[in-house]
Amino acid sequence: MGTILVTGANGQLANEIKIVVPQHPQFQFIFTTREELPIENTAAVKSFFEKNKIDFCINCAAYTAVDKAESESEKAFLINADAVGNLANICNIYQTKLIHISTDYVYDGNANTPLKENSKTKPVNIYGESKLKGEELAIEKSPSTLIIRTSWVYSSFGNNFVKTMLRLFKEKNEIKVVDDQYGSPTYAADLAQVIMELVYRMNREKKFSGIFNYCNEGIISWFEFAEAIKVLTSSNCRINPIPTSEYKTAAKRPQYSVLDTSKIKESLKIPIPFWKDSLQKCIQVLNAG
User: Fold this and answer.
1) CA-CA to 2 of 20 to 30 Å: which in 53, 96, 97, 153?
2) Pairing assessment for the beta strands 2-7 and 27-32 based on DSSP bridges
3) pLDDT at 139 over 90
4) Do the Cβ atoms of 135 and 87 come closer than 8 Å?
5) Boundaries of every domain in the chain
6) What is the sign, positive or negative, of the torsion defined by CA atoms of 210, 215, 221, 225?
7) Per-residue pLDDT at 1 exceeds 80
8) Which is it for strands 220-221 and 182-183: parallel, antiparallel or unpaired?
């Protein structure tokens, strides 16, 4: 059925996609790091696409240091926006279907009901602005692009909230975690499976594209997330809930960025796992490792 290019090969999501590769023998997968394929470099990407017939491109490459982005806006926009536009343009030239990964941070956090794909976007930080610009450029340069907005991504790979909590539980007797920011965690392993479902759908239906939200079921605060990690790992660390006003960060965070996933559930006819069930799976993987 063709060749799938996955960029950002060292990241959480790409590593989870690597695990599902054996389930999809009809596809050849090529994973590239930024060093191997700098997607902002037009000549390098064109040369790569000329040498390899790419049918699908899953763009997992991203600048994800939310606080650092406030002082490195040029770098954030280069990777999250300009490079995405460049990749989309070349995908369009070579008739490659692009699946681009975006974020709940494109919203301002002022909602109080789950956000739909057509809800108003208004980022409150540089990272969110750069990701929104990437979405816009991807659709402008390649109208057949499919964008997945996801939230609070974690995995047994890379750096994320779950692994940070596990480290802090070992290092400290007591920690503070924000309890007035609400969202839905996303286990990258679940997202990897859904991305492959989307690939098959795009393969069957040439005009299947647009924006889709994906996260695990359930709405929680960061504090509740931390508490669940503590329970599942039998930690004795005390977690104190604090308001955002007490936890100063360089970048402002959206207070409420729960994604409405009804569109992807209806389109793919799939159930979405409850966040706590997926968290348990991830912790089992970490313990086994």
Assistant:
1) 153
2) parallel
3) yes
4) no
5) 2-160+186-217+259-274
6) negative
7) no
8) antiparallel
Q: What pLDDT, on the 0 to 100 scale, is given for residue 153?
A: 98
pLDDT band at 237 (very low <50, low <70, confident <90, very high): very high
The dihedral over CA atoms of 73, 76, 80, 82, expressed in degrees to the nearest 10, equals 60
CA distance 282 to 157: 10
User: Which CATH architecture describes the domain 2-160+186-217+259-274?
Assistant: 3-Layer(aba) Sandwich (3.40)
Q: Which residues contact 137 (CB under 8 A, 6 or more apart)?
A: 81, 82, 84, 85, 88
Q: Do the beta carbons of residue 237 and residue 172 sit within 8 Å?
A: yes
Q: Is 8 left (phi over 0), alpha (psi -120 to 50) or beta?
A: left
Please give the structure tokens belonging to residue 108: 């301002």
Mean pLDDT, all residues of the chain: 97
> Does residue 278 contact residue 230 with C-beta atoms inside 8 Å?
no
- Going by DSSP bridges, is the β-strand pair 97-103/146-150 parallel, antiparallel, or unpaired? parallel
C-alpha to C-alpha distance for 251 and 270, rounded to whole angstroms: 35
Distance in angstroms (rounded) separating the CA atoms of residues 28 and 208:
21
DSSP letter (8 states) at residue 259: B
Helix (H) or strand (E) holding 153: strand 153-154
* pLDDT computed for residue 289 by the predictor: 79
Question: Tokens at residue 237, please?
Answer: 């660390």
Give CA–CA dist 2/75, Å, rounded.
33
Residue from 88, 219, 67 nearest 144 by CA: 88
* Active site (annotated) includes residue 127: yes
Sheet holding 2-7, edge to edge: 27-32, 2-7, 56-59, 97-103, 146-150, 210-214
The tokens describing 16, both together, are: 């989870």
Q: Within 13 Å of residue 6, how many CA atoms lie on the same side as its CB?
A: 22
50 burial level (CB within 10 Å; 0-12, 13-18, 19+):
exposed
